[in-house]
Amino acid sequence: MLQVWFVFVLGFLFSANIQAEEIGIYELQRGDLSATFTNYGATMLSLILPDKNGKLDDIVLGYDTIEEYMNDTTYFGAIVGRVANRIAGAQFTFNGTHYNLDANEGSNMLHGGSKGFGEVIWSVQSYQEDSHVSFTYNSFDGEEGFPGNLSVIVTYMLIDSNKLGVRMEAKALDKATPVNLALHTYWNLAGHNRGDILSHEIQILADSITPVDEALIPTGQIKPVNGTPYDFLAPRTIGSMLDQLPDGYDINYVLQNNSLGRLQKAVQVHECVSGRTMELWTTKPGLQFYTSNQLVEEKGKDGSVYRKYAGIALETQGFPDSVNHPNFPSQMVMPGESYQHVMVYRFTTKKNN
Q1: Which residues of 84-120 are buried (b: 16+ CB within 10 A; e: fewer)?
Q2: What are the angstrom distances between the C-alpha of 274 and each of 57, 290, 308?
Q3: What is the maximum alpha-carbon separation in the chain?
Q4: Letter string b/e over residues 150-164, b meaning 16 or more CB atoms within 10 A of that residue's CB
Q5: Of 45, 112, 249, 276, which residue is 20 to 30 A from 56 by alpha carbon distance?
Q6: Rounded-to-integer distance, Cα 47 and Cα 28, Å
Q7: pTM score, whole prediction
């Protein structure tokens, strides 16, 4: 049903052609669900919906002003790319040509470099308050070291009163280039300012992970989660096995049966006090599960102070550092070819038995 609704909505997305020269804020609303976005970084600023008693809360961590988003190091709500996650040594080789990229995390690249897609102003292609907003960006040849010109479009859409869809598309115009876009929203289903997420119950439909070294670079292995703290195949709270990890969760999961680009359910999160449940569906093979381990006294919206474990990021994606691991699904997009990445969030509430 989710896939049917998604295809239906796509049919009328590109009715207008609005060019944005300045940074703006765009609200989508249908029923009790509302969300705001900005063309700075194609960023999600908020998502407000009711709890089991009808009380409205914003469940997205963030800031009060655009200036704070410009100066942050958290990637709150941003579209990250050209290649999300990490690239070892900030380099890769393709078809005999070696590319040196911008190293912005030690010797490695993180989320597209010092000025990735989350740090640029996008244009607004189309906007309708009860339907969608589409942001576009033209990434130039050599930007942060990546080869080729790349045309990118990201569309946020309300599918109905409890579903938010995200469609990311990119076309390589003249050179082969890696593309791996991700949405870096931090969620707290109790409310963005309601403490930590350790009591959230989560189910991740993945039986393997891609292990990492001390710099969070994948080793190239794929290992089963069975018998480890990474096993969330059966729902359990995020904090239930946290004492077995040195610093929280920050790992890529290999989603089950998701190598063919079909829209499939990846994860479900439930918060018992509010009664809110969020499902995330995706067409990508990986899911980065991050428990905001590096948040330290981060001043957020409405006077909030976000601390460690204040939110969870669930970034559907290709596998990290795929350009340096031939056994991982390729992220290379050939000239004239397109990259596509679809996500659907489904929100429901239920009272406890």
Answers
A1: bbbbbbbbbeeeeeebebbbbeeebbbbbbeebbbbb
A2: 10, 22, 21
A3: 61
A4: bebbbbbbbbeebbb
A5: 249
A6: 9
A7: 0.93
Could you read off the pLDDT of 137-173 as tens digits, one per residue?
A: 999 999 999 999 999 999 999 998 899 999 999 999 9
Q: CA 236 to CA 247: how far, in whole Å? A: 19
Each residue of 245-261: pLDDT tens digit?
A: 988 999 999 998 766 77
Place of tokens 């590109």: 14
The 3-state secondary structure of the chain, one letter per residue: CHHHHHHHHHCCCCCCCCCCCCCCEEEEEECCEEEEEECECCEEEEEEEECCCCCEEECECCCCCHHHHHCCCCCCCEEECCECCEEHHHEEEECCEEEECCCCECCEEECCCCCCHHHCECEEEEEECCCEEEEEEEECCCHHHCCCCEEEEEEEEEEECCEEEEEEEEEECCCCEECECEEECEECCCCCCCCCCCCCEEEECEEEEECECCCCCECCCCEECCCCCCCCCCCEEHHHHHHHCCCCCEEEEEECCCCCCCCEEEEEEECCCCCEEEEEEECCCEEEEECCCCCCCEECHHHCEECCCCCEEEEEECCCCHHHCCCCCCCEECCCCEEEEEEEEEEEECCCC
pLDDT the model gives residue 257: 74
Region 196-219 average pLDDT: 97
Q: Which residue has the tokens 């100066």?
A: 71
Catalytic residues: 184, 315
Reply yes or no on whether the pLDDT at 19 is more than 90.
no
How many angstroms separate the first and last alpha carbons of the chain? 27
- What pLDDT score does 286 carry? 97
Whether residue 50 has pLDDT greater than 90: yes
Neighbours of 214 (CB within 10 A): 6
